[in-house]
Amino acid sequence: MASTTDDRDDSPTPGSERLKAKNPFEFFRQVRQEGQRVTWATRQEVTVSTIMVMIMVAAAAIFFFIVDALIRWAIGFILPS
Description:
Elements: H1 24-37, H2 43-78
């Protein structure tokens, strides 16, 4: 027969004290600390990534323009007005 007692441990997990609500100033201090730990991209990396995104957007626009023109032509060929 199955046991009806609850075997889980309701004690706080290690490190969960950090997650408790604190005052807003403490929160923003922690946010600032986390922001300092982030490895930010260099200006050159951001520039290269931006250029790559612009190239891909232009390529996608050209591709979809061609596909749209082909579909328009095919529909006009099948259903002449």
